[in-house]
Structures are given as structure tokens and as C-alpha cells.
Write a structure and sequence with these properties.
The chain is an alpha+beta fold and 489 residues long. It is built from 12 helices and 24 strands. It has 2 domains: 92 residues, 2-Layer Sandwich (60s Ribosomal Protein L30, Chain: A); 391 residues, D-Amino Acid Oxidase, subunit A, domain 2 (D-Amino Acid Oxidase, Chain A, domain 2). The structure holds flavin-adenine dinucleotide. The site of flavin-adenine dinucleotide has 36 residues, from α10, β18 and β22.
Length: 489
């Protein structure tokens, strides 16, 4: 194995050639008094010299990571970089911001991303606000429904949210919002797949599609009608009879008499968002991201159109740019900066059942759309989730909250696991009335919002991250953000 080292010191070599590939160490300017353009020119000249010493040149560049201490220098750096990169030979580039994540929990993914249904589901991208929703909401006021619960409260923000939600319940708004949401979901799934291919993250991923089941012909017929918008936008959704459902998911074999059929989206997938997020956090640490866990954000210091510091119970943090991604809490803290974020918590419940030696657990995830119960296999566990409850920021749960989801799962998959040994959890979906998230700077040029992904936040996560990075770098995002930039919905 031929290895050649260049500019070798006691600690590191500036370049190492191994076989046909040359690896360069991080290159810094010699003169920090120069402006961003001058420093970039100096760095690129040093890179040219190293490549030449190793017998290579910039036309063969595969990948570059660029670290900037201040994003305000982005345009100046790029003006030099763009002239330097040979035409047609642009490398993979990674932006190297210095990032600090502040989170009140002791580890990543301890709140909404902790135990959701795990479905990466463009095939379920229909918005909640639809012409059918007002009737369902009205009925939920008069019974303790397990699927949708609206607890009357004096919170004016809940009423403002509900009024705006009702305004989005027209046919036209529902089509518009679903189309936008689907675009982001599909883009996001591609971003997830690219990230997994690049990093090898393990998170009990299951490819092969998701199944959306219906218990009666009326429910199935209505789903076929309503999902036409997804098909019109290019998503593959197959209508299956009960036997077809059992072919796709053999664990349904004993339940075919209980279903009228289903919609199968072969490109949908699933995985444990908590495992994914924990793995990603570890990866980010190796790239230099700092995590300040157990730190609660309480406010901000701003001056004019810039945020200068974030205030926490463990001191102040200064930065050039800030990201507001606090799920439902974004609305509360955003108010301190004069932001009106229409994000309201909608509580959901989940149970996780150990599969152990039981042979009847499903392989593919799905939703019993008549009972509104989602299920998903995550390795040796079966995750069940249900209920959309408007009860403010309360995250408590009682055994009765899990009755319908457990009964539904037992009915469909009687031998899926040790149902009596399930573990329970409840959390808050950060919902917008439109069903689409909110991005971009708001009132402050250097505070970037990434929130409101609602009931599809795992599906939209990786795409939302890319959108955020593009907005921060001043690039045009690759996905249509109509109605998703702050204040444009
Ligand atoms: C029951 C249920 C089932 C779901 N199923 C699916 C599904 O199948 N597919 C799908 O795509 N989506 C699903 N979702 C939605 C998805 O889980 C959420 O949209 C997503 O997890 C939201 O991610 P987030 O990063 O915005 O929020 P979180 O994961 O909650 O992250 C926000 C972070 O902000 C931190 N934070 C908040 N306030 C403060 C503060 N003041 N100071 C410091 N830190 C703070 C929290 O500690 C938390 O870590 C489901 C949600 C629920 C509740």
C-alpha cells in the first residue's frame, strides 16, 4: 500500500496520498488581518501548491468542507471560490458553520421525536384541514373521542389557531396545502435517503412501503377520492382489496375479514426517529458540533433587526446566526421576539410493545385509517400511536388513553407482541393550521425559523434541515416554499 506524506510535522501532514487519492488537512490563512476575500485567496493558493506537490490539481477535487466563522462573509468567500473552481469540476461542498445546539433535555430526541409512529409517509401527506374537518371537530366537542379530542379552554391562542384552521378547510385551500406539503415530504424523503446512504445511520429502518387500511367500503371509497391529489402529483398509491393487503403484509392474513381494503404506497418507509436523531447527534459531534444539553432557553437579546444573544438558565450564548426549532415552544419563545408563529401543540399518544418471540408482528408500517391508529415495527418493538388532542401544553397520560390503539392492534395483529408489557408516552405535535411548516428569517435577519412540521415532522425533517441550510447560506432552496416562509401563509 503506497502512502506519501507532504509537509509533514510532528502532529499532522498537510497532505497524504494513498493510492490514487490525495487527502488534504484543513488549510487556514497565514494572515488573519486580511478580509474574507483575501483569506480565501490565500487558502486556495496554499491548496493549489499542496495538490501540485502531490501530483494532482483542483480539476480532480471530489469534496470540500468550508468553515466560516461569520456567515456575513459567505458572499465574499464565494466570489473568490467561484472564480477558482474549474468549470464543470465543482466538488461536493459542505458548509462548515460552528454550531452549538441548546436543548433543555439531557439527550437529543427526548420530546416529540422520542416515540412517534416512525412513518416516513408522503403517502399520508393529506392536510388535516379539509372540508370534512369542521364536522369532525364539532362532533369531538360532545364525546370523549379517542381519535380527536378538543378540550374547551380559555386559551385565546387555541381559538385563534382553530379559526385559522377552519379558514383552511375549503376544498381549494386543502388541495393547495396538501400539494405544498407533499412536495416537501417527497423532497425530505430523498434527503433522508441521501443522508443514510452517505452516513450509514442505523435506526431500525424498514423500506418497502406503508399500508393505509380501511375497515369499511365507505371509508375506503372516501380515501381513494381524497388521495387523488397525491396521485395527481405523481405519488404511486395502489388500491388493494383485503387479500391484496395480506399479500403485501402477511401478518394481516387472519384479519382480512375485518378490513375493506387499503391504499399501499410502495415508496413510503419507516424507522425510529429517536435512534436516527441520537445517531445524527453523535455524527455531528465528530464534525465539531457542540451540544449544550440540560439548558433551557428563556429569552433573547436583540438590537434592531439582529438577535445578539440567546438567554438560558445556564447563561448567555452569543452567535452570528440563530435557529429557532423548539417545536411547540417556538411559538411561546418566538413571541418574545415579536414573532407571530401559528404553531399550536396537538397532543398524541404512543405505546411501544415488545415483540419478543411472537410471530405475528407486521413487517411494514401503516395506519388503520378508520380508527386513526398508526403502527410500525421498529426492530423487535411494535410502535402504536393515536389521538389528536387539543389540551394545551400538558404531556401527561393515563392508561385509558391507550385503550383504542391497543384494541385496534390486537384486532389486526393478535400475536404481534406482549401487549401487556407495553411502555407508554405522550407528546405534542407542533401543528400549523395549514399543515405546512414555517421557515426563514422573521423580524430579525439572523434568526432562522424551522418549526411547525406537525404530524409529519419525521417525514419532513431532513428536507427541512436542507431548506434551513440553504436559507442561511442565501441559496435558493431546491423545493418550492410557497406559503412556508414566515408571514406568507
Ligand atoms: C404520537 C405522535 C406520532 C407521530 N408520528 C409521526 C410519524 O409517523 N411520521 C412523522 O413524520 N411524524 C410523526 N409525528 C410528528 C413528529 O414526531 C414531530 O413533528 C417531530 O418530532 C417534531 O420535531 P421537532 O424537532 O420540531 O420537535 P422535538 O423533537 O420536540 O424537538 C424540539 C426540541 O426543542 C427542545 N426545547 C423546547 N423548548 C425548549 C427551551 N425553552 N429551551 C431549550 N430547549 C427547548 C426540546 O427539548 C426538544 O428537544 C408524530 C408525533 C406524535 C406526537
Amino acid at each position: 500500500m503506497a502512502i506519501k506524506r507532504f509537509e509533514t510535522g510532528t502532529r499532522l501532514s498537510m497532505a497524504v496520498a494513498h493510492g490514487n487519492t490525495v487527502y488534504l488537512a484543513g488549510v487556514v490563512p497565514d494572515d488573519y488581518s486580511l478580509d474574507a476575500k483575501g483569506q480565501t485567496e490565500q487558502i486556495l493558493a496554499k491548496i493549489d501548491k499542496l495538490l501540485s506537490a502531490a501530483g494532482s490539481d483542483k480539476t480532480k477535487m471530489l469534496s470540500a468542507t468550508i468553515w466560516l466563522t461569520d456567515m456575513r462573509d459567505f458572499a465574499d468567500m464565494n466570489s473568490v471560490w467561484d472564480k477558482w473552481v474549474p468549470k464543470g469540476c465543482a466538488p461536493l461542498a459542505k458548509e462548515g458553520h460552528r454550531v452549538t445546539v441548546i436543548d433543555r433535555q439531557p439527550t437529543a430526541a427526548s420530546e416529540t421525536s422520542f416515540a412517534n409512529a416512525g412513518l416516513v409517509a408522503p403517502g399520508h401527506a393529506l392536510t388535516w384541514a379539509s372540508p370534512r374537518a369542521p364536522k369532525i371537530l364539532w362532533k369531538s366537542l360532545f364525546r370523549d373521542d379517542q381519535a380527536l379530542r378538543l378540550k374547551l379552554s380559555a386559551d385565546p391562542r387555541m381559538w385563534a389557531w382553530c379559526l385559522r384552521f377552519l379558514g383552511n378547510c375549503t376544498e381549494a385551500a386543502s388541495r393547495r396545502n396538501t400539494t405544498r406539503k407533499l412536495g416537501l415530504c417527497v423532497y425530505s424523503q430523498q434527503a433522508l435517503q441521501a443522508l443514510v446512504a452517505e452516513t450509514g445511520l442505523q435506526y431500525d429502518r424498514q423500506e418497502g412501503g406503508l399500508l393505509y387500511l380501511h375497515r369499511n367500503p365507505a371509508s375506503l371509497a372516501s380515501a381513494i377520492r381524497n388521495s387523488a391529489i397525491l396521485r395527481d402529483n405523481g405519488l404511486r398509491l395502489e388500491t388493494l382489496d383485503p387479500a391484496g393487503c395480506a399479500r403485501v403484509e402477511p401478518a394481516l392474513a387472519s384479519a382480512t375479514a375485518k378490513i375493506a381494503g387499503g391504499l399501499y404506497c410502495p415508496t413510503d418507509e419507516s424507522g425510529d426517529s429517536r435512534l436516527f436523531t441520537l445517531g445524527l447527534a453523535e455524527l455531528c459531534k465528530t464534525l465539531g458540533v457542540a451540544f449544550e444539553f440540560g439548558t433551557t432557553i428563556t429569552g433573547f437579546v436583540s438590537a434592531g433587526d439582529r438577535v445578539e444573544q440567546v438567554l438560558t438558565d445556564r447563561g448567555k450564548f452569543a452567535a452570528d446566526n440563530f435557529v429557532l426549532a423548539l417545536a411547540s415552544e417556538s411559538a411561546i419563545l418566538g413571541r418574545k421576539l415579536g414573532l407571530a408563529l401559528p404553531v399550536y401543540p396537538v397532543k398524541g399518544y404512543s405505546a411501544t410493545v415488545p415483540i419478543n418471540n411472537h410471530g405475528g408482528a407486521p413487517t411494514l408500517g401503516g395506519v388503520d385509517d378508520t380508527n386513526l391508529v398508526a403502527y410500525c415495527r421498529m426492530g423487535d418493538r411494535l410502535r402504536l400511536t393515536a389521538t389528536a388532542e387539543f389540551s394545551g401544553y400538558d404531556k401527561t397520560h393515563r392508561p385509558a388513553d391507550f385503550g383504542v390503539m391497543l384494541a385496534t392492534a390486537r384486532d389486526l395483529f393478535p400475536d404481534a407482541g406482549d401487549y401487556e408489557r407495553a411502555s407508554y408516552w405522550a407528546c405534542l405535535r407542533p401543528m400549523t393550521p395549514e399543515g405546512t411548516p414555517i421557515f426563514g428569517p422573521g423580524r430579525h435577519k439572523n434568526l432562522f425559523i424551522n418549526t411547525g412540521q406537525g404530524h409529519m415532522g419525521w417525514t419532513m425533517a431532513c428536507g427541512s434541515g436542507r431548506v434551513l441550510a440553504d436559507l442561511m447560506a442565501g441559496r435558493k432552496p431546491e423545493v418550492d416554499l410557497a406559503g412556508m416562509l414566515y408571514g406568507t401563509a
